[in-house]
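Running this now, will post back.
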Amino acid sequence: MLAAHQAFRRDLARLVRAAAAADLADPAKRQSVAAGWELFKRELHLHHTAEDELIWPALRPRLAHSENALSVLDAMEEEHERIDPLLAAVDAAFAQRDETAGPGHGAADDWPG
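Update: finished.
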């Protein structure tokens, strides 16, 4: 899980840069990118919700005998706090790009978010 979260952070940091530079003047391309971004956010949210509400609470009592295991679980929970700001940064990068692109490039409120 830690490796997956590290990959999410890496890819989201790259996506912030890509979103800021994206040429989304074509409405079809813009709609496709927006749909893909929303799907990614929804799936990641479902993944984190399952961990937070189902997996971690079930594991914590089973790992109570091991401080090392609990520290790993704590680290995995903390990963969510590091990923959420990156999701917001991608949304902000798309919005910033729209503000600087001017008319005809789509409004920031076209992006679900």
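The chain has a mean pLDDT of 80. More later if anyone needs it.
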